[in-house]
Design brief:
- The chain has about 260 residues and is α/β, with parallel strands linked by helices.
- The chain has one domain: Spore Coat Polysaccharide Biosynthesis Protein SpsA, Chain A, CATH 3.90.550.
- The chain has 9 helices and 8 strands.
- It has a 6-stranded mixed sheet with strand order 2-1-3-6-5-7. A two-stranded antiparallel ribbon has the order 4-8.
- The radius of gyration is 18 Å and the shape is globular.
Amino acid sequence: MPTPIPQVIHQILLDKRHIAPNIADNIARLKALNPGWRHVLHGNDEIQQHIGTHFGADVLKAYNSINPLYGAARADFFRYLLMFQDGGVYLDVKSGCSQPLGTVIRPDDELLLSRWNNRPGEKFAGWGAHIDDGVPSELQSWHIICRPGHPLMQAVIDTVLANVRGYSMRRHGVGKFGVLRTTGPLAYTKAIEPLLGQHPHRFFDSDAAGLVYVALVLPPGQSSHMGLFKQHYTRVKMPLVSSGPQRPWHYARYKALRLLGLMR
């Protein structure tokens, strides 16, 4: 019998020294709504130790090769490693829930998956649709709910490792689409979808179940959580991987292709 999904909530904040008040409040609400659950906030030090202990030097080297400007990509990669090793519930620090997590998870659940309600007229119309990348409706990766050792999480790790080790600006891009393709929901979706028929999982409607993509209370005049970050990854134009076969001419070629409208 597979191990049940543990009652632990994982969140990632790379720099735990400076926690914005609205993030601290969001974490406090999440903990108050789930009093029987353990909550773990993972920062840089814990991440380095966890990867080195459970996955070894080669995987840690791949993680550290991700440009530090792309904190979102580092958080993507670590969440997959973490959830494969430990299981439980992962939520972005900007995210939360409106009802206890115990109402979402069934005793026999092994992995929960959800897509955006993104058809015309729906709440998230157009979200997660990446036709040019062959993904009409991405799997959400801002939440991951699974047991330890789930084989679909191993598939995601394998895919992301290959993407990081073989990263090129021409193939993967930079900024928003570089993250989506290399470590984010596009990589997550492409790793999982071909194997869905082989491993246990359950699809659910995350919105109807009370999971909230942006649960932060935003400051007056601010309409997006992106303003909370000094350098949001969507605005970065440097290579996502800071080691490997990157050369100045790659970046020059990338800029030329962007100007010609041949890549994003």
